[in-house]
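tool_call: predict_structure(chain=1)
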Amino acid sequence: MENLNDDEDINRTWENIKENIKTSAKESLGLHELKQHKPWFDEECLGFLDQRKRAKMQWIQDPSQSNVDNLNIRPEVSRHFRNKKKAYLRAKIEKLETNSNIKNIRDLCRGINDFKKGYQPRYNIVKDEKGDLVADSHNIVARWRNYFFQLFNVHGVKDVGQAEIHTA
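tool_result:
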């Protein structure tokens, strides 16, 4: 920034710096892909969802009769989503039946537990020594470090003797 000439645009320089930071972060850290919580939701569903949003936005901008008629796509899209989800669940149940028939108990139990539990969000909250909630990642790591330090570093025990084992 100190070597910046007066004839260079500061916004262009900032965009260049920003892109360099983003590129180096992607190379060193990689991209974080979010877990898809609805496995039945695919590209076709995404297209239907876009159609439904466009129809509603057109109706909001101009509530004429032609745009009201375009809103009829909304129940069709919802019906498509329901049918997609039912087909996914049906396939999952058939897979459980197959695991049951071939005596694959491990996969059968995992599948049943997935059905029973459903989606469980992950909580990143820990209680500190006082009982207050800690949500910051650095404080959580520090809390776990203190917890295991106290757990594994037992003070005051001078001699841990081995118990005598009497054999016959």
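agent: The longest strand covers residues 126-127. Proceeding to next step.
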